[in-house]
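Exam revision sheet. Question 4 asks you to relate a sequence to its structure. Input first:
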Amino acid sequence: MGALMRTSGTTSFRIDRLESQGLVRREPDPDDGRGVFVTLTKKGLRLVDAVAPAHLTNEEQLLGALSIAERATLVLLLRKLLLSFEAPTFDVDKKKPSSSRNQRVVPPENAAPCRDGDTDLTS
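Answer key, structure tokens:
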């Protein structure tokens, strides 16, 4: 189970492995010396193109029982969960911590409302 944890160390390790296989490359962020951009190489793009059809077929099988509206609601709920795991960031302009947890998730137009009729899933 520990292999599934998302930490900066495990993320770096996974990117290192992809880089060593020639699937991605790291490029420095020109606006932030602490950051890097990770981009697919041509080899990585070919791999994604090769596996995407099978992945999309599997995704369709997994979600096939859900309507479009239910899928949109699922997206919102999964986004809420993801945001709850992310660490707060620091808002340089406001000189205080900010968190993606405080962002309002705006549902797609065809999203099914929550039971209480509220589609704002962040509260």
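Marking note for examiners. Helices lie at 8-20, 42-63, 68-85.
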